Give the backbone structure.
Amino acid sequence: MNTPDGETKSPVVRSLPTRIIAIDYGLARLGVAISDERKIIACPMTTVTADRKSESTAIKLIQELNQHAALHRYSIEAIVIGLPLLMSGKKGFFADETLHFIECLRKQTATPIITWDERLTSVQADKSLREGNLSRKKRAKRVDSVAAIIILQNYLDSLVSQANNPLVTKE
């Protein structure tokens, strides 16, 4: 593109907006939630059926996330994965399974992966769905994505509270 004085001007390249993704990992299904561009509100995205091997589930998930990002023209800033700690705060079987899955994910993407304490999110999600008078069958189909929404909303809320609290430092 030429300017009136004959110089060549480069077109303006705009970067894609970013979003944060959250995952509620399960051995059968993974609930997935997505933030809005301003990173204030968590919304449901999808539920992914897990494969028998964590490696193939990780590949499938990253492919779905990349397709969604390309279709809706955004880039993924971070992936938040709920870490199901025991009530004592210690890691149990499901936390170990989740950490193994995170290792598999890290082999598939350079996107930062953040673990988030998700104690009781599935219970909270099921309770919310019960209040919506959904049948047990319908609740079972939605509980994973609702749990992912809760994980992501808690994470997004923590970002806002860190930004509003000058005493909190980022690591």
Remarks:
- The two ends are 44 Å apart (CA to CA).
- The chain has one domain: 18-163.
